[in-house]
Amino acid sequence: SPNEHKLNFKKSKEACLSYIQDALLQKQWKRAAEFLTCYVESLEKDYSREHIGPSEMIWRIGSEILWHHSQSNMKEFNCFMEQMKTLGVKRYLKVCLEHVFHLLCNGQIDEAYQNLSLAESWRFGEQTAIQDKEMKLIQAYRGLLDYCSWSKQKNILLENGEDGFSDLAVEQEMHGYFRKAAVNLKEIIKIPGVWDVFVKCYVDLLEFYGDHNEARQVLNEYAYNSKFPANPNAHVYLYQFLKRQGESKKSLISALKILHDIVPSHELMIDFNTMLQKSKKRKKRRLGLEVIFAALDYAGWKENAKAWSCLARQVKQIVISEKHLDWIKQEWNSRKDWWPAFHFSRYLAKRNWLENQSLSYEKALVAGILLGKDCKYFKYISHQGCKAQLKRFRMLKKFVNRHNPVCLRISG
């Protein structure tokens, strides 16, 4: 019966898809290609009137296979993409974008640019308006490629220095690229989203031509507009810009404070701690201690000698002055259950001593202050340092022994 035929057809089609999925997961690109061919052939025989969306599947699966298949080449890929563009008008611009990414990955920059220009001139009734977002992306990527051309011309000019007449044409061409890039990049970053690379390039253009106010406005908007998703990079770019502009410590600190709240393990926390430690204000120095302790909670920081040195310097100052011991105590209370095993085991002491003596010195100083002179880590490192007759390790041992009563007040 026709119904039974329909049902069997549907089953075999679904089975074919699951075989493809299985082959993709196992990275068996040849097998996946064979099943995809069967799937496409079976669709051609499909006389059912059901509304199915197989063209998207063919596009996505096919491009994945061609990208990884050992015997495929760029010519085949281009050919496949051109077919996909005619397969579904609703996806036309998405397919164009993906095609462009593949061209860029293969270093075919001119071809990518041509494809973007063609896509930009595409018109298809109401579909054009519906795909407005994709169109903006197409324009933005064209802006990005114009920026790359601008950057190339700029480097030529800078290399040739003052040596002048023949550079007039280069300069005019460069300004042309600047205008095209700026228009498209400015448009895309108005839409709420994560536009890191576009923002960086646009700011670079503005700074080169001395438009610092516009650059500041763009970066402030990107970092602080609540319609945009929370994005640590936005605060990094703002901080780097303010630093280049020689802004006050106060504004640098407030940019990094937000970054600390979002990503306490960010590498800029060392700069942040250094700035806060130098502050005359008690509140800022207190925050500095909090910042460096928080960073060292993360495994990626365990062997960061610079971070341990920042912490060692600050706790040493506090112990010598005996002011604000409560700051250390507060930070230590929430960590004393797990930091000894995480940072100060005998195993780590051995490893740190062999791999990096200055890291082990800074860590031993912190360990001695937080856990007292009987701490495993401190004992092992100071013993090795004294055995190797290194003066600073002798001084370290003396320092911790002399201040042991204070250290015990901290470790409670």
TrEMBL record:
PANTHER family, A to Z: TATA BOX-BINDING PROTEIN ASSOCIATED FACTOR RNA POLYMERASE I SUBUNIT A (PTHR32122), TATA BOX-BINDING PROTEIN-ASSOCIATED FACTOR RNA POLYMERASE I SUBUNIT A (PTHR32122:SF1)
Gene behind the chain: Taf1a
Organism taxonomic ancestry:
Eukaryota, Metazoa, Chordata, Craniata, Vertebrata
Matches recorded under InterPro entries: SL1/TIF-IB_Component (IPR052669), TAF1A (IPR039495)
**What is the organism of origin for this protein?**
Dicaeum eximium
- Superkingdom of the source species: Eukaryota
One GO CC term, this protein: RNA polymerase I transcription regulator complex
Q: What is this protein called?
A: TAF1A polymerase
Q: Which GO terms describe its biological process?
A: transcription by RNA polymerase I
